[in-house]
Amino acid sequence: MSKDVIIIGAGGHARVIEDIIKKTGDHVYGFLDDDVEKQGVIGRIEDCVNYPDKYFIIAIGDCTTRKKVLDRYSNLKYYIAIHPTAVISENVFIGEGTVIMANAVVNANTKIGTHCIINTASIVEHNNIISDHVHISPNATLCGGVVVGECTHIGAAAVIKNNISISANCIIGIGAAVVKDIKCSGVYVGVPAKSIVGKSV
Question: Which residues are catalytic?
Fold first, then answer.
């Protein structure tokens, strides 16, 4: 029996998740967004409490904002969205509210937390631990034994060397190469990745 899913957010990321849900045979009931003029929006985010029988997924790319929504509405039933072309090995744990997009690979003995984004064609190798609210951007590669802290965003095409730990609340820039542990929150860019202060990527 198919599930009715309400998507929180109605931007481009939400439309990608809509496509994933439809491809898995489940049904998108509608979108909740504070911009009620967007296509398919059936109410504001706060209206989620009016649908106790529906499943939800938070389609907001920013890790911190996604966590804030969850903190406010933690009692909802959350949906896991996995694109049919994703390759998921055995012995992988995937937390509720997480989305795994097209052509992503998640290999054996990896744990993915709640409300994570494993984006298009990203590679999460064996024995990784991905904490809650992490966003792995398209074409990023996490080699084996990587640990990523909560609310960290790994940029597109970034590469994380094997057996590396990354602190919570970090931004790893586009195309960065992380070759040693990152112990403090912050923004890290370059090859090899280094901290930058007072800048965003």
Answer: 126
